[in-house]
């Protein structure tokens, strides 16, 4: 019978290092996890702020759009046609519409097409409970004769105050 001998070689340790203990590995993993969670939290916050910024941008674009429609209206009494409109209560049936009524219908569909917030959010907009954005136009006296102040306001569930744009337009 042949006898085998197995020779073992000791591990060479440089400078007295003996590797990592389980506790050291667990502490390093916990620190790494805390860092990853901090980055993830920052990412979620960034996405939320981007969504809110997009909401404001859509609302401002819609408000500026109706102001441009009002300015380009050639009717001499153009501001009377826009006096007080609310997207949640006013609408004009298709047919023979004034330019102001047609502009309002177009603006209403653009405002109502902006979905802001979640499907469960509702709020009061001019006495009507709505889920999406709503807006209104008000024309009031201006700072000087023959000039009126036009106020456009758009609100939505996730930003109760909404946005307000006010300008003076020659009447």
Report on this structure.
The chain is α+β, with helices and mostly antiparallel strands and 171 residues long. 38% of the residues lie in helices and 23% in strands. It has helices spanning 22-72, 99-112, and strands at residues 84-86, 123-125, 128-130, 134-141, 147-156, 159-170. It has a 4-stranded antiparallel beta sheet, with helices on one face. Strands 2-3 form a two-stranded antiparallel sheet. Helix 1 runs antiparallel to helix 2 (99-112). The mean pLDDT is 80.
SSE order, one letter for each helix or strand:
HEHEEEEE
Rg over C-alpha atoms, rounded to the nearest angstrom: 32 Å
Estimate the strand proportion.
Answer: 15-25%
**Which sequence of strands runs across the widest sheet?**
1-4-5-6
- Biggest sheet features: 4 strands, antiparallel
Number of helices: 2
End-to-end CA span: 118 Å
Low-confidence stretches: none
Number of strands: 6
Q: In which range does the helix fraction lie?
A: 25-40%
Mean pLDDT: 80
- The 3D shape can be described as rod-shaped
Structural class: alpha+beta
């Amino acid at each position: 019978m042949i006898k085998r001998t197995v020779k073992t070689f000791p591990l060479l340790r440089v400078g007295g290092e003996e590797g990592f203990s389980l506790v050291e590995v667990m502490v390093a993993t916990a620190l790494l996890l805390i860092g990853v969670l901090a980055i993830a939290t920052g990412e979620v916050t960034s996405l939320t702020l981007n969504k809110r910024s997009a909401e404001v941008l859509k609302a401002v674009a819609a408000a500026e759009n109706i102001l441009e429609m009002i300015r380009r209206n050639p009717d001499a009494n153009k501001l009377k046609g826009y006096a007080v409109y609310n997207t949640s209560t006013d609408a004009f049936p298709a047919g023979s519409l004034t330019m102001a009524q047609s502009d309002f219908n177009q603006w209403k569909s653009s405002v109502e097409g902006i979905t802001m917030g979640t499907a469960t959010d509702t709020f009061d907009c001019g006495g009507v409970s709505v889920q999406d954005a709503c807006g209104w136009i008000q024309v009031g006296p201006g700072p000087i004769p023959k000039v009126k102040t036009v106020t456009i306001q758009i609100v939505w569930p996730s930003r109760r105050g909404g946005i307000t744009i006010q300008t003076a337009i020659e009447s």
